[in-house]
Amino acid sequence: MSIWEYANPKKFMQTSAWALPWVLGLTLICLVVGLTWGFLFTPDDFKQGSTVKIIYIHVPAAMMAINAWGMMLVTSLIWIVRRHHVSALAAKAAAPVGLTFTLIALVTGALWGQPMWGTWWAWDPRLTSFLILTLFYFGYMALWSAIEDPDTAADLTSILCLVGSVFAGLSRYAVLFWNQGLHQGASLSLDKKENVSDVFWIPLVICIAGFVLLFLTMVLLRTRTEIRARRLKALLARERVA
Amino acid sequence: MQLVLNNLAVARGGVTVLQGLTLSLSPGRALILRGPNGSGKTTLLRTLAGLQPPAAGSYDLPADSVAYAAHVDGLKSTLTVAENLRFWAEIYGGPGMDLALQSLDLEALAHRRAGELSAGQKRRLGLARLLVTGRPVWLLDEPTVSLDVASVALFAGVVRQHLADGGLAMIATHVDLGLPEAEVLDLEPHRARLIARDGFDEAFA
Amino acid sequence: MPPAGVSGQEEAAGPEEVGGQGMKTLLIRDLRLAMRAGGGFGLGLAFFFLLAVLVPLGVGPEGGVLARIAPGILWVGALLSCLLSLDRLFALDHEDGSLDLLATAPIPLEAVVVAKALAHWLVTGLPLTLVAPILALFLNLPQAGYVWLVVSLLLGTPALSVIGAFGAALTVGLRRGGLLLSLLVLPLYVPTLIFGAEVIRRGSEAMALATPLALLAAISLGAVALLPFAAAAAIRVNLR
Hints:
The complex is a heterotrimer. Chain A is an all-alpha fold. Chain A has helices at residues 9-40, 55-82, 85-117, 125-146, 150-178, 198-241. Chain A is globular, with a radius of gyration of 20 Å. Chain B is α/β, with parallel strands linked by helices. Chain B has one domain (3-203): Rossmann fold, CATH 3.40.50. In chain B, the strands form 2 sheets. Chain B has a 5-stranded parallel sheet with strand order 5-6-7-3-8, with helices on both faces. The longest helix of chain B has 16 residues, at 149-164. Chain B is globular and about 50 Å long. The relative contact order of chain B is 0.22. Chain C is mainly alpha-helical. Chain C has one domain. The chains are: A mainly alpha, B alpha/beta, C mainly alpha. Chains in contact: A-B, A-C, B-C. At the B-C interface, strand 5 and helix 2 of B face helix 1 and helix 5 of C.
C-alpha cells in the first residue's frame, strides 16, 4: 500500500467521499466550540477590551493563509515530479481558499487595528506581507484561468508557484527590512506561552484546529469539483474525436 | 543516419490524433505525408522535431539532426534577406548562405528587407533557411504554400539535391511536388478514432 | 546593408562553441531589431521621462516632498518602463515561428532566455540607468543620492529583465498575455524594488547602505543564475 495510491483520481474520489462528512462534522464541532468559548466565555483583555476577541478569527485565518500557499507549493512539486493530476488539481483548488483566508486575515486585522492603533491600515511589515501574498494568489489564479489546456496550465502554474514561493519569502524579508512595524509579536509559540495567557490560549487552539479542518473540507470539496470538471473535459475530448 | 518510428502516437491539445506509426526512412529517401486537414501532419512533424513528446511509442533520430520548417518561416521583416539567413546559419553553425541564396534564386533580393518580399519570395527565403542549417533531416510542413509553378520546381530540385547528398526529408503536402521517387504515406489508416488520450486516463482506469 | 563584423565562418564549431556563438548572434539580432523601425527602442525611456515629469505635476512643486519620494518614484518608474516592452520579448518570436526554430537549434533554450533578457536589459535597463540622474534633477534628489541612484539601478535592472523574461515565458502562448504578464511579474518585482529604493534613500541621507546594496546584488545574481532555467522550462511547456 503506497500513499501514492490516493493520487489516483478514482481512489481519491472514493476516499474523499467517505472522509468528507467526518471532516465536515469535526470542523463544525471545533469552530462552534472554539468560537463560542472564545467569544462568550473568556474575559476581556485589560488593555484591549473586547476587541481582543477577534483574535479567534484573525490568528487562525492568518496561519491558514500562509499554510495554504505552503500546501500549493508541495502539491505543485508533486505534480512536477510525479505527474499526479489530483495533486495539480488540489493546488488549483486550494488557491481561492487560501486567498479568502488572506483577505479574512487582512479585514479582521483592520477591524482590530482601528481601535488599537487608531488606523484601519498601516504599512506594517506583517500587514504588508499579507497584502503582497494576496498579489501572489491573484497572479497564480489568473494564470490558471488564462490557459485553456489543463496540463499546460498545471505545468506553468506549478513553475510559477515554485518561483513565486522564493520571491514571496524574499518579499517577506525585504518588507521586514523596510519597516520594523507596529504589529505585536507572534500570538502563540510553544516555549513563550506568556504571550497569551491560558484562558485565551485553549479556545484559540481549538479555533485553529477548526480553521485547519475548514481548510481541509474546502480543499477536499473543491478538488472533487475540479476532478469532475477535468473528467468532463476529457469526456468531451473523447467525444470530439470519436 | 536513419529516421525510425516505432509504433509512434502523437497528440494535439491532449488528444491523440495519430497512432501506430511504424516506419524507417534511410538517407536519400523522402516521405510525403498525405491526409486531410486536422489529420495530424503538423503534430507529427512537431513531435519529430522534438517540440512535443510522443503520446506513445518512440522514434529514433540522431541528436541535432533536424531542420524543421513550419507554416511560418521565422523571418524578421525589418532584417534583410541576407541578415535573416546569416542569423540562422550562425545559430545552427551551418555552412554559409551563398549556396542557399543561389539555389532558391534569392541572390538579387539579398539586400531587400524581408518585409518587402512577396509571399512567395518569403516562402523561398524560409526554405533557403533549411540549406543554411546544414542538417540532414528535413521536416517540412506544407513547404509549397504560396509558391508558383516555377518555384515549386526550384524547390523540388533543392530537395532532390539534398537527398542526393545523403539527406532525408519528410514532407506534409497536398501538392504534387514533382518528386516521383518519394514514398507516400497516407495517414488516414493511422488516425486515432476510438481511443482518445488526454493524459487523464487514470480517472477512467 | 549587411553590417560588417558578423560573418558565419565558424564551420567546425563544437556544441559549446555553437551555444556561445549562438547567444552572441541572437543578442546582436535582437539589438538590431530593437534599433530598426518599429523595434520599440526608446519607448520605455520616453515613458520613464513622462513619469518623472508628471509626478511633480501631481504632487506639487515643493522640493522637500519630491526629494523624499524621488527614490521610490524613480524605481517604480524603472519597473514600469521595463514592463512595457516585456510582452514582446518572446511573443514576437513565437508568432513568426522563430521560437520553434530556436528550440530545435543547437543553442539551449536557457541560453536563448539569457541572450534575450540581456538584449532587453541593454535596450531598456541600461538606458534607464543612464538617464535616471537627469530625471532625478526634476525630482530634487539630494546630491549624495546620485551615485547610489546609478549604482542601485545598475545592480537592480538586470533582475528586472530576467524576472520579466520569466513572466514573458509563462505567458508566451497566450493571445492577450500583456495584462496577465504584469499581474504575474509585478509581485515578483517587490524585493528588487524595496532594496533598490532603499539603497538610494539611505545613500541620499548618507546612511550605511551596505546591507540593502548586498541584498540587491544578491537578488540580481540569483535571478540571473536561476530564472533562465525556469523560463526555459516554461517555454518548452508552451511550445508543446
